[in-house]
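Standup notes
- DV: blocked on the single-chain target, sequence here:
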Amino acid sequence: MSFVTRDGRDWTPNFLTSIDAEKCIGCGRCFKVCGRDVMTLKGINEDGDLIDLDEDEDDEIEKKIMVMNDQGACMGCGACARVCPTNCQTHMPPAAVAA
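- DV (later): unblocked, structure below
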């Protein structure tokens, strides 16, 4: 799958396929540039479990990270990768995602 930009250049999307929880610092920059609800911010408790962020549970959160929310909504623009300070995301072209 490839496309042509407005001025005729070839363009192939690279879809977000995963986020490395060890590298992610939960800064939210990727979330802010993505208007498609592909990712969401979650907390990790002391047992290493992912939990929804809730003001009442703030004391139980050891770390905040971005996680995949709706992988199918990604359009492959790469904006999230360009703003990520830790390079914690994996992106793949359509052929690799379909395989």
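- Follow-up: The chain has a mean pLDDT of 91.
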